Amino acid sequence: MENYEHTLGDSAELYLFCQDKDKDKFNLKKTKIIGYTSRNSLVFFELRRFLRKNNIDIVVNFTGSGTTDMMIVLSTFLKETNIITHNHGNFFWPKNILFKRKFFRFGFRVNLEHSILFLTQFFTYRFLFSSKDITKKLERFFFISKKKIFYLPSIIDTAFFKKKNKSVCRKKLGLKKKDKIIIYVGRLTYLKGADTLFKIIENNPNIKFLLVGSEKPSYDQGFKNIVYVSGATGKKLVDYYNSADLFLFLSRTEGNAFVPREAMSCEVSAIVSNIESLRLLNPAIKVPRDVKTIQKNIEKFFQFSEKRRKKIGRECRRFIEKFYSEKNLKPSFKKYFLE
User: Fold this and answer.
1) Could you tell me the pTM of the whole model?
2) Domain locations in the chain?
3) CA triplet 98, 102, 104: central angle to 5 degrees?
């Protein structure tokens, strides 16, 4: 929603239609927040009344959910309201995840829900996807609607996520100046590669790992080189990024992940999984799901001179500014939403 406010807020009137109990969770400046109270199966009646009363031109589904798309189709049926689906996640789980026993039922349900879009595509004005390779994949799946499909990633606020003095940030956060520090931000789950991450942590007792955004998981066997940070947001998160030497992100599936791009915007070098979406972060080091290969890349990085590390960091920053900054994406947002 902040992306929409920054790029469209001066050209359009914005509303967020969400559950009434969630209204207070949002701190938006240009958006009117409308809370619905209906049960899930009846939400489309409430949305339809709202659309008619406020003469809404466009409804955006940015959840990526097929059921949400169907609800919007029912709400706009026989009305001159355009539907735009702006998907920020991945679409159809890959086989190497789907056929894992513990994820099959959940993954099958997720893929089945996505399949609803095979029907709703006929009522959708535009599909916007946040990764180029996922966009190309969906052009194959939805070949009938290929002309409706476009690439539009989410924006990184490069004025906010920027380089700061590492020593100052470490002192502020109580971290030692001479430590080797690797940071990870996000949930510590199997899909996010937590099992692989903790093998790396175990193999590197002389490196401090900052794990931001999660509490201690079952993978932690009492390792002494971990600092858990549960509440780092805003400026404090920027300080944590800037205190690190390296960002490590070993997720199994991603759409348009914010955190590696935020870290790179802060001139922090990154090692990421060689998977859809992440593999397009050109200055980042891409690795397979192999502990030995990941370990070799970490060791190689810390063998680089300080000058070379800073050069890689600057390359990361320039890449984010070129492809994900508000300055460069704002014209595309206006084009796909307002034209």
Assistant:
1) 0.90
2) 2-156+326-338, 166-324
3) 35
